[in-house]
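Mods, move this if it's the wrong board.
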Amino acid sequence: MQRQSNIELLRLISMLLILVVHIDGASLGLPQPMGDIASMTARDWWRLVVESISIIGVNCFVLISGYFGIRASWKGFARLTLYCLFYSVAIYCIVAIGINRDWTWQGLGESLMVYSHTDLWFVPAYLGLYILAPFLNKSIESMTFKQYSISLGAFILFNLYAGWFWGGNFNPTGYTILQLVMMYLIGRYIYRFIPQIKNLGLYATIAWVVFTGLILLNSLYNKSIVAFAYNSPFVVLASISFFMMFKSVVFTNKVINYCAASAFAVYLVHKNPLVWGQFKAVVESLWSQLSLPMFTIVAITIVLVVFVACVIIDQPRRY
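Not the wrong board. Structure tokens:
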């Protein structure tokens, strides 16, 4: 399937949003107003608003996989594995040998076990989705519109109600393979059954603004771990709306397609445990030293620089 640049642009933006989430909530932590809005500072509002806008990144990234469909193969599995190994091993060797000078055989061995000995929850979860994809695809292809709609609706309701609302262990906050499966199925549903509707972009934009506002409102009266859970109904609906905004405008651009192929490298580099600690420390230091407007400018600069740098760094891996 020829890559649609509107969806590939969404892939790029989704990874930028993931990077923003890691600068915001993951590095700085989030306030817990729990209804006490009067005591919130400008910095508290900043963190909650930024998190509300950017928390959809992971869901959108998986929606794209569902929309295009995962065609699992041994070659594809090898490509995914080598993609992760390239950065895990390379970063370990650079840091352990060239910087910390603390190289060990055990450390090298663990850098090779990218699906088990890793802090990157998304990597093993995505592998699980990759393995399940043939089963999911076969089931989807055999279903009618009515069958798929009922089955998907039931699965979503179960996930949101028993998982998010009641904090079920199988998927309390969305950091699980089950969440990826749900978003993948939604993506396939959009591809199969949602046509190009007139003014779709306008309706989707309005919906995205509304659901983003509901995410923020929920964060003001609920715990942040619940309000910003990937399986929150507001986060899921905002993710779908954001996806539909890009689906509504179809175009082709070789530069966007080329850069999008390196989007995953941004995650593998900056969230690597040997990089993440230093990255987080820099963000925390800047937050404490700079004014809020200046920090905003610097944070945007960091996001863009890290993204561009990772795309450039990824070229040897792609070659």
